[in-house]
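Model it.
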Amino acid sequence: MKRAVTLVELCVVLIIVAILSVVSIPQYMAALERARAGKARASMTLIAKAENLRAAENNGLYITCTNIQLIANLGSYVEMNEIQGDDAWDYAVTVGPSAFVITATKEAGLPNAGETITLDQVGTWGGDFSP
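Modeled.
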């Protein structure tokens, strides 16, 4: 005798799938944000290395630059193509007397938009980003 799936069994399976989705989707989104932040930190480390290499060749002078200017000003020191193509973060380097701060700002339209991660010339991380 063939046994068919009843409507109650089907509803139970759908409820279980719905509960798993409710639990797993926020976790997935948080993991995605942590991965994006990790990529931003790696990019910022490359920018800092490029700034230090450039300063070593230019009497300790750092250079201010933004997303668009990164390749032109620092691209000869490290590979910047992935940084330039980053669609989640905007990067900017601000320069003071014998110091620099790199700021990555989360782009508008994404979760945590406007939040920042910072890195200075001595390797101190900061900012208000919280995935």
